[in-house]
Amino acid sequence: MRIVLVGPPGAGKGTQAALLAQTLSIPHISTGDLFRANISQGTELGQKAQEYMRAGRLVPDEVTIGMAKDRMDQADAEGGFLLDGFPRNLAQAEALDGILKDEKLSLDAVLDLEVEEDEVVKRIAGRRMCRKDSSHIFHVEYSPSKESGVCDVCGGELYQREDDREDTVRKRLEVYHNETEPIIDYYKAQGLVTTLSALGAVADVTKRALAALGREDAAA
């Protein structure tokens, strides 16, 4: 299956993408992983991306599209893939259609994870990370530490990242509404979109997604 997963920051795309890809035995292709891999391997596209990033500029669509195409051309993606974070705008969505059309392929589904803006802000702004080990993550409401401001695992100080502050989160949401949301209507016109609630337990959201894909059997 060839799937695109979309949704606002804080909707749980990364978690669901990894679970769905594993369940369906297809590669999870995320924009973040593409950038990290190309930069660490010193590819031509990675070098170009790094130049823009060092200058504090947005990486052009053609660079991101090139990375995605190279990844989709790899052997493990022949039977399908799950795209997470790509496409992020209409230009990238149209480019993806062109890439697939050239290979006489098409998308099977676009899953739109839906969550209200206030819930997104609550999810992200409530996160606290450990200064000693960033893999230790807590939430002031959903998974608080036993002692306020102190990591349960190593005793490190818990803090709120700049990216997780409410004003920053709302700016990220604005970018999502302006740049990424239009691709949902683009794919709706192709009859590909299923909108799913991203609320509830992780396993419940995964079950909804698999049902939308007609793969309830895989949830067992």
Which keywords apply here?
8 strands; globular; five-stranded parallel sheet; alpha/beta; 8 helices; 220 residues; three-stranded antiparallel sheet
Structure description:
This protein is α/β, with parallel strands linked by helices and 220 residues long. The protein has 8 helices and 8 strands, in the order βαβαααβαβαβββαβα. It has one domain (2-115, 176-219): P-loop containing nucleotide triphosphate hydrolases (Rossmann fold, 3-Layer(aba) Sandwich), CATH 3.40.50. A hairpin with a 6-residue loop joins strand 5 and strand 6 (137-139). The two termini are 19 Å apart. The mean pLDDT is 94.
Total number of beta strands: 8
Q: Order of strands in the sheet with the most strands?
A: 2-3-1-4-8
Query: What is the CA–CA distance across the termini?
Result: 19 Å
Question: What is the helix tally?
Answer: 8
Helix/strand order, N-terminal first? EHEHHHEHEHEEEHEH
**Uncertain segments:** none
Structural class: alpha/beta
CATH architecture: 3-Layer(aba) Sandwich
Strand content: 5-15%
* Proportion of residues in helical segments: 40-55%
CATH topology: Rossmann fold
**Count of the domains:** 1
| Major sheet attributes | 5 strands, parallel
What shape does the CA trace take?
Answer: globular
InterPro entries: Adenyl_kin_sub, Adenylat/UMP-CMP_kin, Adenylat_kinase_CS, Adenylate_kinase_lid-dom, P-loop_NTPase
Family: Belongs to the adenylate kinase family.
Subunit structure: Monomer.
Enzyme class: transferase
